[in-house]
Design a protein that fits this description.
mainly alpha; 134 residues; globular; Programmed cell death protein, putative
Length: 134
């Protein structure tokens, strides 16, 4: 069986535990899967599972940033979280943190992603500020 297939099976098991089990059973499966699969992929999936619980999702992001350094994908997911929860002002802090850990190519990719999010969720620049620019 390929690694990707194993990962998908573990993700499905975690999703089942999240939907039909309790926190204890999910944590048990989560700890088991961390031993055999890529940590970053599993942590990003657990964020997907807790998408509706903002506090838990934010806590997981703090853990991911400590465990996985220099991942553009993690920064992109965090920016999605920020914009989804109307906390646009945190994007500036996120960008400054990302500049210290990401290389130039990944940083450009992150900035493009943030621009797309601003278009999707609303721009950080207010209408009055736009008028001052022109």
């Amino acid at each position: 069986m390929k690694l990707e297939e194993k990962l998908n099976i573990w993700k499905a098991l975690m999703q089942l535990e999240a939907n039909h089990g309790d926190e204890k059973s999910l944590k048990k499966v989560y700890n088991e899967v961390l031993e055999v699969c890529d940590r970053k992929k599993i942590m990003l999936h657990i964020i997907h599972i807790y998408k509706e619980k903002k506090e838990v999702e934010e806590k997981i992001f703090r853990i991911i940033f400590k465990k996985v350094k220099g991942s553009c994908k993690v920064y992109k997911k965090y920016c999605n979280f920020i914009m989804r929860n109307n906390r646009e002002e945190e994007n500036k802090n996120t960008i400054s943190k990302a500049k210290t850990t990401l290389d130039k190519k990944k940083m450009i990719s992150l900035e493009i992603h943030i621009a797309r999010l601003e278009y999707k969720y609303g721009s950080l620049i207010k209408e009055d500020q736009c008028l001052k620019i022109f």
